[in-house]
């Protein structure tokens, strides 16, 4: 068995292989795949993984050790200390080199040296003893005789056979590789029809343009042989003709013939119009009747002139012109195209000047020859208002029919006022005398004239419905008037609240960072973090309301105190686990009592250390108990995972100074105690490892016994005195 290498045959399912031999350094180990060094990584000292090449199966994987032969790994110097490690390394270097030499020699089959029927063949990983089977003879003198016909291609160098090694007329068609005879190796005009297989010449072997009309039979070209789009007009008609196309006209022969192209549209059945002629005719018709272009709102004007002839006269219908601002001259410049260009609308009537068009009102404007400039045409009433007017048209007609009476009443308003003042018996009239008097003023008459317009009458009819009257009565109460005044003062804040806070069952559209949304579907309050809505965890009203409060970080008292007597979690009546083992009886409380310790060394385990954590352990059991740190922790610098021996009848406070180290404060006797008679007592057996603090001295009253497997470490600069 080899001592410095191991060989595997890959199965294609793994790139990882075991290293079965020892080595001094990983740099002494190489991995070869089919005799070529590969790239690999170490999983451990006993396994590698090949990074490259990827193994598909059947490859030979050789892991081999080559210990340094040119340089000694250990160089001894006079007066130096001899360590076990240096001696081992030095001897291993020689030992491993010897193993590697023996392994190399063992690859040679000695039997092959003793016979003339075998030779040694190297395959990149070892030498193999191969029988020559009569193809070659190895003489005792070392000469090799090769039998006739025994050399195959595998044993011949590329391009090693030239014409001088080939017998004349010895190469026949069986020895030509398919496709190996090219034009350069054929004489001119050496291939005639007898050498071409019937039906063997296809289009790939025609030279472009080599087939002329003399070699095409009559009636041989059918439609299927003509490429789509490859028959041009020049192949069908006189290409010099002007404004002619191929067509079939209603009054013609019925065959395809030349048809005239019209550049001006007419009603003739003997011609075909051009696309420009058709467009010009459509533009002419549209200009006669006027174009029409509908848009959703004043921010959706087309980027180009909507007129089909890029001129004036096309009507643009704005479905909702609400928000369009009109100045005192009847001009609006707040409209926008879809590309955000400014739109100018001129000639807006005085009724709408210095106003903002109300929501849901539509507007018709007419294009001009200037891009993005329009003239006002008419306003379009709200659909709801139109419906109300239509419903109440009889009332409107009635008011219009008695307009003269209304004017007369306005003219004698003072008389009406006088009558009202004297009509004591008509209590209702008397109660409203002031209001009736106001109706006769010029302002009131002007207001009533406005109230008589169709739009206002429609609005008043709406306001007169029972539900709206009830609503207005509610709004008219003193409290609501005050509330509305407050709302008016805080309109900006209200609008902001409306924009930033939403109650809905689905995600609000176009949110901004900081917006709040109460998801009524899931009953969760969420806030927008700039990219998405995130749930806000529910909280508590105060600490008293939380039965198990937890801090999310350090509590800073800011110079204050916690009043009252604090209570700590305690665990009493515990039994130390039989047989000392780290992890047994994990402590989870501030105070932990070992009530039962049946055997010396029965164990409990501290929690994982964290800076500032405090645990008090009391051993009220009959025997000394082991207190283990959590895995990876250290108590009093005695060593990682080393137990602290807590004597029976004593207690100790463990204080964590950081995430891994505990310090102890002993009480109730500890490892020693001071009696009331001025004597200091301590146990006469050391049952746990102990490290004397650096630069401190220690004093022990002897005799003292150190338990088997236990040590006391005395650092440099410290002294232990046993008196």
Numbering strands along the chain, what is their spatial order in the largest sheet?
15-16-21-22-19-18
Category by helix and strand content: alpha/beta
Largest sheet: 6 strands, mixed
Helix content: 10-25%
- Number of strand segments: 43
Q: What fraction of residues sit in β-strands?
A: 25-35%
How are the secondary structure elements laid out?
Blueprint (H helix, E strand, L loop, with lengths): L4 E5 L6 E3 L10 E5 L2 E2 L1 E6 L2 E6 L7 E6 L18 H23 L11 E5 L4 E5 L4 E3 L5 E3 L97 E4 L9 E6 L8 E3 L1 H15 L2 E6 L17 E6 L4 E2 L5 E5 L5 E5 L8 E2 L5 E6 L5 E8 L2 H9 L1 H9 L1 H9 L1 H10 L4 H5 L1 H6 L3 H10 L2 H10 L2 H10 L2 H12 L1 H10 E4 L11 E4 L4 E5 L4 E3 L34 E6 L15 E6 L5 E4 L8 E6 L5 E4 L5 E2 L8 E3 L3 E7 L4 E7 L4 E3 L5 E3 L2 E2 L3 E2 L6 E3 L4 E2 L5 E2 L6 E3 L1
Parallel strand pairs: 13-14, 15-16, 19-22, 23-24, 27-28, 28-30, 29-31, 32-35, 38-41, 39-42, 40-43
Antiparallel strand pairs: 1-7, 2-6, 3-4, 3-7, 5-6, 8-9, 10-11, 12-13, 16-21, 17-20, 18-19, 21-22, 24-25, 25-26, 30-34, 31-33, 34-35, 36-37
Helix pairs in contact: 3-10
Brief summary of the model shown:
This protein is of the alpha/beta class.
């Amino acid at each position: 068995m080899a001592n410095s290498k191991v060989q595997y045959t890959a199965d294609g399912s793994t790139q990882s292989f075991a290293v079965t031999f020892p080595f001094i350094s990983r740099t002494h180990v190489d991995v070869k795949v089919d005799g070529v060094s590969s790239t690999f990584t170490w999983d451990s000292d006993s396994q590698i993984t090949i990074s490259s090449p990827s193994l598909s199966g059947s490859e030979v994987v050789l892991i081999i050790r080559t210990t340094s032969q040119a340089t000694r790994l250990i160089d001894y110097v006079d007066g130096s200390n001899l360590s076990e490690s240096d001696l081992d390394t030095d001897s291993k270097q020689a030992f491993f080199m010897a193993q590697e030499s023996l392994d190399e020699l063992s690859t040679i089959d000695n039997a092959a040296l003793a016979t003339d029927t075998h030779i040694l063949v190297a395959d990149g990983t070892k030498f193999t003893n191969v029988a020559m089977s009569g193809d070659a003879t190895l003489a005792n003198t070392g000469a090799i005789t090769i039998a006739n016909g025994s050399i195959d291609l595998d044993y011949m160098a590329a391009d090693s056979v030239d014409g001088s090694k080939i017998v004349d007329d010895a190469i026949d068609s069986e020895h030509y590789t398919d496709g190996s005879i090219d034009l350069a190796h054929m004489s001119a005009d050496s291939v005639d029809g007898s050498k071409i297989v019937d039906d063997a010449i296809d289009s790939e072997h025609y030279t472009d343009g080599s087939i002329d009309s003399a070699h095409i039979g009559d009636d041989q070209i059918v439609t299927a042989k003509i490429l789509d789009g490859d028959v041009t007009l020049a192949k069908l008609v006189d290409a010099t003709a002007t404004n002619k196309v191929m067509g079939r006209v209603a009054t013609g022969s019925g065959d395809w013939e030349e048809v005239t192209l019209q550049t001006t549209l007419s009603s003739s059945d003997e011609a075909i119009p051009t696309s420009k002629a058709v467009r010009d005719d459509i533009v002419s018709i549209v200009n006669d009747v006027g174009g029409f272009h509908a848009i959703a709102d004043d921010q959706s004007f087309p980027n180009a002139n909507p007129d089909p002839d890029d001129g004036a006269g096309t009507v643009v219908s704005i479905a909702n012109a609400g928000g369009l601002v009109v100045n005192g001259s009847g001009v609006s410049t707040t409209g926008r195209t879809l590309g955000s260009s400014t739109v100018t609308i001129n000639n807006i009537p005085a009724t709408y000047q210095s106003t903002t068009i109300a929501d849901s009102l539509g507007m018709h404007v007419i294009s001009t020859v200037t891009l993005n400039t329009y003239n006002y045409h008419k306003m379009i009433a709200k659909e709801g208002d139109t419906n109300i007017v239509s419903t109440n048209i009889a009332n409107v007609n009635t008011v219009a029919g008695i307009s003269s009476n209304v004017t007369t009443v306005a003219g004698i308003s003072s008389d009406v006022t006088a009558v009202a003042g004297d009509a004591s018996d008509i209590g209702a009239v008397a109660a409203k005398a002031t209001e009736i008097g106001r109706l006769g003023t010029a302002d009131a008459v002007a207001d009533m004239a406005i109230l008589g317009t169709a739009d206002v009458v429609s609005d008043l009819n709406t306001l007169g419905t029972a539900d709206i009257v009830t609503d207005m009565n509610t709004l008219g109460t003193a409290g609501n008037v005050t509330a509305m005044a407050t709302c008016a003062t805080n309109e900006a804040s209200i609008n902001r609240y409306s924009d930033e806070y939403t109650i809905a069952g689905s995600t609000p559209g176009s949110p901004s960072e900081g917006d709040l949304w109460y998801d009524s579907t899931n009953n969760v309050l969420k806030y927008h973090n700039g990219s998405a809505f995130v749930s806000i965890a529910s909280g508590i009203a105060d600490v008293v309301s939380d039965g198990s409060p937890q801090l999310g970080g350090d509590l800073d008292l800011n110079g204050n105190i916690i009043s009252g007597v604090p209570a700590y979690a305690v665990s009493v009546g515990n039994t130390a686990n039989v047989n000392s083992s780290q992890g047994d009886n994990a402590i989870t409380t501030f105070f932990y009592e070992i009530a039962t310790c049946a055997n010396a060394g029965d164990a409990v385990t501290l929690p994982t250390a964290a800076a500032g954590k405090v645990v008090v352990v009391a051993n009220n059991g009959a025997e000394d108990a082991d207190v283990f740190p959590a895995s990876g922790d250290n108590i009093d610098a005695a060593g990682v995972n080393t137990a602290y021996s807590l004597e029976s009848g004593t207690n100790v406070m463990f204080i964590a100074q950081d995430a891994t180290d505990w310090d102890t404060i002993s009480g109730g006797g500890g490892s020693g105690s001071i009696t009331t008679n001025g004597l200091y007592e301590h146990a006469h057996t050391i049952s746990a490892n102990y490290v004397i603090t650096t630069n401190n001295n220690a004093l022990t009253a002897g005799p003292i016994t150190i338990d088997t497997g236990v040590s006391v470490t005395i650092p440099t600069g410290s002294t232990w005195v046993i008196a």
